[in-house]
Specification:
The chain has two domains: 9-109; 115-210, General secretion pathway protein M, EpsM (Gyrase A, domain 2, 2-Layer Sandwich), CATH 3.30.1360.100. It is 59% helix and 18% strand. It has helices spanning 7-109, 120-129, 165-177; strands at residues 144-152, 155-162, 181-186, 190-193, 200-210. Strands 1, 2, 3, 4 and 5 form a five-stranded antiparallel sheet that branches. The chain starts with 6 loop residues before the first helix and ends with a strand.
């Protein structure tokens, strides 16, 4: 009778099966790690893409802000140019119409029965503060006349003659009340004799600042 011992073979088979099981486990672990790496890479890729979109939006906002600031500077510069043109036009208009209005004001003050251009409430204030600063409504403006008128740098010098010093003072008072004149200054006057009439007259010069 022949006996065959199969125990070693059985052990070898069990060992082989155990090795294959470990190989399967290792393969599964490796696959799980690879899958985890893919998932991690995908998450990080999405985060990176989100950050890129955020950076792109910020860059776009910065460029928009830069354009807005640049446009604001251009608009401000254009407005300044327009204001400068308006000021220049206003000055030209004033230079054209101002002297005419000033001469008309001077003629009005030297017309019998007329007076300086002044607001009624301001004239009332002048009368309350200093009654002597008010002009004389009964003054005969024919007692004074102008012989020369010179304007330079918004300042005028009047030369003329009057019957006496009070006539010259009346002109100065009227000019001082007028809205067209200011800083009135009487220069030293002198007595002269009119050759044709023989009358003693006062020859005067008066300086004033012009407002127009």
């Amino acid at each position: 009778m022949i006996r065959i011992n199969l125990l070693p073979q059985k052990r070898r088979v069990e060992r082989a099966e155990s090795s294959q099981l470990w190989m399967v486990v290792l393969m599964l672990l490796l696959l799980a790690e690879v899958a985890a790496l893919f998932v991690f890479h995908g998450i990080k890729g999405e985060e990176l893409e989100s950050q890129r979109r955020t950076n792109a939006e910020l860059t776009s906002q910065i460029e928009t802000a830069k354009k807005a600031v640049s446009s604001h500077a251009d608009v401000k510069k254009k407005l300044e140019t327009l204001r400068a043109r308006e000021d220049a036009i206003a000055k030209l208009q004033s230079a054209r119409t101002g002297p005419t209005a000033m001469m008309l004001e001077l003629a009005r003050m030297l017309t019998p029965g007329r007076g300086p251009s002044i607001a009624p409430e301001k004239l009332d204030e002048v009368r309350r503060d200093n009654p002597l600063a008010d002009y004389n409504r009964s003054w005969d403006a024919r007692r004074l006349w102008l012989t020369q008128f010179v304007e330079e740098g918004r300042r005028v010098r009047l030369t003329g003659q009057g019957r006496d010093g009070e006539d010259v003072s009346e002109l100065a008072r009227r000019m001082n009340l007028s809205s067209f004149f200011g800083d009135i200054r009487l220069l030293p006057a002198k007595r002269v004799s009119n050759k044709s009439t023989g009358l003693e007259l006062v020859e005067f010069q008066l300086e004033a600042q012009v407002h127009y």
